[in-house]
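TA notes. Do not distribute before section.
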Amino acid sequence: MFGKKQKYLAGLIDPEVLSAIESDAMHPVFLDLQACSALEIRYDFFEPSCWKDLSARVRKLAPHALQIGTIRLKRDGGAFQDSRANERLPLWKDILEADQVPEWLDLEQDCLYSYERLSDLAENRDVNILVSQHNFSRVPTAMELRDFARDVSRLGARGLKIAAMCTAEDDDDRLYDFAHENSDDFELFAAFGMGDFGRVSRVWSLKEGANLTYGAIGHVAAPGQIQVPVMARAMEKLLEFHSRFEISAFLANNQ
């Protein structure tokens, strides 16, 4: 559907990163920020009182970067209380009423009961929705992955992300098959593994059809995550990689 798409390297914006750059334009993480073609604004890490201004503040520092906004729940690796999941809709409304807003919002798969209402709010600001799944215990089965893609497609969401814990070397094969079969149906698509066994997939998934991956700005925020400078170099060399072994060797030499 979307043909050949730009590939995005996303870094996470939290209070530490944002305050460091705003207070010192020469701070080392500024180079990481410039190397990212997308930035995930983690609203759940900030005080709600400053949420409406976050998109504008990030845009001032990195006007080149696509913005993905999320209020991540604790069960999905975030800081927002799971019991308050239903309270996020008015918070999204406040964010979307700001002068500047992210191009994308990230909504977890297990909160799809909020999709229609969030979609209505987002559509008014020409904002797209990415539906994400985070599995910190295993890679879903091929059938579970197909069901996930089907559910997201039925809703009409334009983005899909899955990050799943790899506990064996071949676990990521299912994610590659999933990306190869479904990535063309979405404007933004990420499918990679977490943990040590998933490190290579953060790069190789882009060879299998995904066009969104994540790197660490400053400190590592997820199991198996790779620093932004290394990810950026790997993506520059993407056409030169012909096997997962080559990517593994590159990462080992660029620790």
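Switch to the second chain here.
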Amino acid sequence: MIQASLTSYFWSGDALRSRSVGGNMLSGKVEVPSPPPRLVADWNREIAQRLFLEPGDVEQMPLARTQVRWPDYDRCVRAMADWTRAQGLGDVLAGSDIALMACRGARYHHDGEQYGGAAFCNLFLSEDKGLDVHFPSSGHRIPLVRGTAIVFDTCQPHAVIRRGASGFDAADFPTDENLSQLFLTWELPVEASCVARALGVEFDVDMAGATRLAQEQVWKDGARAQVDPASGQWGPAD
């Protein structure tokens, strides 16, 4: 499904290029072993003592420490590589940047002003805490459990919200509940033909417009747009 009203302008080498925003999304579940309690305790300390996550925050975690302290880390990566290969993405995962992230919910947002040239590929490592990833444009709600796998266009609005909630509300993430989610994320190059084909992306939809801009951004119906953090709906950029 191509959303013709949305256009991403993204860096391709040293020039901006235009593309459509892919409306397709891949999701599934892979077999991921439980992280050892010592590692989970380490994650919790990092979140509490360094990140100080507020409701809606998404922050990067130290990946190297997890790689050293989790004997099954490589097994998780292999499982994700097998899953993406089965989705028709070939070996694109192997050459993509990877990071470990933590969130305490997530406000509705898109990442097209920083990662317009990528698709996100996420593997969730935490247990089910009653949270969903919600894509308001398509209506997809994906329960977050250990092993949830998702590939989506970075320009698609998305959020992590309470199961059953209609939008993001900071009150749904009280301080006395551990509602943090840990996930591995890869930046897949959207210009790779297998990625573009899977997500339904078309390129050079506004070649003239791309030459007039100086930074990555997303436009809707001919004007720069932003996402409402509570509802996920598009509106004019400030």
